[in-house]
Amino acid sequence: MLDVRRLRLLRDLAQLGTIAAVAKVHTYTPSAVSQQLAALEREAGVPLLERSGRRVVLTPAGVVLVRHADTVLSALEEAGAAVAAAGDELSGPLRIGAFPTAVRTVLPAALVTLGRDHPGLELMVTELDPADVPEALRERRLDVALIHDYDVLPASPDHGLEESPLLEETVFLAVQAGTGIDEIRSTGEAAWIAGTPGTVCHAVILQLCHAAGVSPRIRHYADDFAAVLALVAAGQGVSLVPQLAAADPPPGVRLIALDARRRTRIAHRPGAAGHPAVVAFAAAVRASTDAYLSN
User: Fold this and answer.
1) Residues 165-181: pLDDT tens digits?
2) Residue 290: pLDDT above 80?
3) Prediction pTM value
4) How far apart are alpha carbons 15 and 47 in whole angstroms?
5) Do 18 and 29 meet the contact criterion of CB atoms below 8 Å apart?
6) Are the C-beta atoms of residues 174 and 229 closer than 8 Å to each other?
7) Which residues in 268-285 are b (16+ Cβ under 10 Å) and which e?
8) Cα separations (Å) of 263 from 39, 79, 165, 188, 253?
């Protein structure tokens, strides 16, 4: 009999690439992960891993087992969802992840709705970058999350997630009023305010600037869009902000709509789409998003 916990480790190795990365995700030592994978090989009766230089890679049998591991783990999620649906009312923790602009705009009303309609749920919100969501879902630190990417820089599909679209937002070029700038191409020697290197927001600025033939001169780094807009208002540079962050810009900021969209999706583990808590969250956040955008 194959141990499900060890199957999860093998699946994570296929996704993360190294035993050290798997150990970090599960707060194990690399030695403990190696021992668990060796035990899985004994259970399977065939080699699942082989050395390639200083790394380990999956054997053909390991690749086959990972495909089945995804099916098994998804089936366990579906089983948990079915059991939860058989109950009289929703109860227990619902761990929600969301990026900062969603936490400030569409999420609060959704939480109010969930608390009113399902008082037995223990709602727990974690603010985090979308890039950190897959790991948090795999580790079961989250049950459901809001993630985003941009149409000009689409995220690579993650087979460890199931996603459904929530909304698309216009992306704006934020400039100080009176500058005469009307598009990215005309930013010229203007300073830029960008997200921290490695974030999606930083990468999107580089992508759109390069597409417009501009080499952005980044002077300031800020990940909070309220701070970004305050810096723009103070004449410290230009930046990009999505619609949710641009609803109430400070005086002195002009917003120029661009032909680019930020796309937000609801994400959860495969097989969890039918879990009543996930269904309730999706309904609540869709209603709150529609209400927010209509105001």
Assistant:
1) 999 999 999 999 988 88
2) yes
3) 0.77
4) 19
5) no
6) yes
7) bbbbbbebbbbbbbbebb
8) 42, 30, 8, 28, 24
Retrieve residue 8's tokens. Answer: 């999860």
DSSP state of 237: -
In CATH, the architecture of 169-263 is: 3-Layer(aba) Sandwich (3.40)
CA distance 250 to 130: 26
Q: Do 4-84 and 169-263 have matching folds?
A: no
Q: Checking DSSP bridges between strand 191-194 and strand 217-221, what pairing results, if any?
A: parallel
Task: Select the CATH number that applies to the domain covering 90-146+268-294 from these four: 3.40.50.880, 2.60.40.420, 3.40.190.10, 3.30.200.20.
Answer: 3.40.190.10
Cα–Cα distance measured from residue 57 to residue 128, given in angstroms and rounded to the nearest whole number = 30
Segment 14-51, tens digit of pLDDT: 877 888 888 887 778 888 888 888 888 888 888 888 88
Q: Return d(Cα 170, Cα 283) in angstroms, integer.
A: 23
Statement: 4-84 belongs to CATH 3.40.30.10: no
Which pLDDT belongs to residue 86? 58
Task: Indicate the burial class of 32 (C-beta count within 10 angstroms; 0-12, 13-18, 19 or more).
Answer: middle
**Domain spans of the chain?**
4-84, 90-146+268-294, 169-263
Residue 253 bridge partners (DSSP): 176
| Residue 255: Cβ within 10 Å count | 17
Please give the single-letter amino acid code of residue 223: D
Interatomic CA distance for residues 238 and 174, integer angstroms: 6
- Cα–chain center distance at 16: 16
Angle at 67 between CA 66 and CA 73, to 5 degrees: 80
For 87-111, how does the pLDDT look when each residue is reduced to its tens digit (9 = 90+)? 667 888 899 999 999 999 999 999 9
Q: Give the Cα separation of 265 and 276 in Å (integer).
A: 18
Q: Which amino acid is at 124?
A: M
Q: Of 103, 98, 101, 110, which is closest to residue 291 (Cα–Cα)?
A: 110
